[in-house]
């Protein structure tokens, strides 16, 4: 009986063969971003929802110049905000959208870019969150830089598919590629400063649920993936 690992390996092999075959006849030319349009991140994400309001008193932490240069290469739009509730609990939201999720411009995941900025990743696990009547697959990390402890929850949407692993991202790219489509992509990252990892992730889950409840169906499908994906 074939194990799940072997099934995945076989699927990857088959998709790689299909992708190679497609390359013989030409690379994908239909850009999803041209067909459905690029989102306006500033307008898509509300500045106030549920218990949360944009915290204008907190400056947005910018990445190092070399990381910023990479982000500019990969993404068309980047949105960074800090939100706060009445209890003074703060959440940092980072959204990055790229119209071309091909090999050279695939989403740059936090477990890669955080260590590049000096952080140590001390925990890394897959999780699902109940969002909008469905289970949203996410990846949860714990990062540390000196005295700064920053729990992170993130996921990537490639086309309409939610992915949380590098291989999942590659598979999604291939699924669209063999149909001649260059998928777009969005990386959603939610984090806060909190030494207690479980407490930090619980607050992030609450924020994500509140955000999903305030989005229209079209925006939600781009941020949280298509239902059934």
From TrEMBL:
Keywords: Signal
Keyword DNA repair: no
Top-level taxon in the UniProt lineage: Bacteria
Coiled-coil parts of chain: none
Residues annotated as domain Methanolan biosynthesis EpsI: 10-216
Stretch forming the signal peptide: 1-22
Pfam family, one: DUF3485
Name the UniProt record assigns to this protein: Methanolan biosynthesis EpsI domain-containing protein
Species: Pseudaquabacterium pictum
């Amino acid at each position: 009986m074939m194990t799940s690992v072997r099934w995945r390996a076989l699927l990857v092999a088959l998709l790689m063969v299909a992708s190679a075959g497609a390359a013989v006849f030409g690379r994908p030319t239909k850009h999803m971003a041209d067909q459905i349009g690029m989102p306006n991140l500033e307008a898509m994400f509300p500045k106030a929802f549920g218990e949360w309001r944009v915290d204008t008193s907190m400056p947005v932490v910018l990445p190092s110049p070399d990381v910023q240069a990479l982000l500019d290469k990969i993404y068309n739009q980047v949105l960074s905000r800090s939100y706060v509730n009445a209890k003074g609990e703060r959440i940092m939201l980072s959204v990055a959208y790229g119209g071309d999720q091909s090999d050279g411009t695939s989403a740059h995941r936090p477990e890669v870019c955080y260590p590049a900025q000096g952080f140590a990743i001390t925990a890394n696990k897959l999780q699902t969150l109940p969002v909008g009547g469905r289970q949203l697959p996410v990846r949860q990390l714990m990062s540390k830089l000196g005295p700064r402890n920053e729990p992170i929850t993130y996921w990537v949407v490639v086309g309409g598919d939610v992915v949380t692993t590098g291989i999942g991202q590659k598979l999604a790219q291939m699924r669209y590629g063999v149909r001649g489509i260059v998928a777009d992509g969005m990386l959603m990252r939610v984090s806060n400063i909190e030494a207690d990892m479980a407490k930090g992730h619980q607050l992030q889950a609450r924020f994500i649920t509140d955000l999903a409840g305030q989005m229209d169906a079209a925006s939600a499908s781009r941020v949280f993936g298509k239902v059934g994906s």
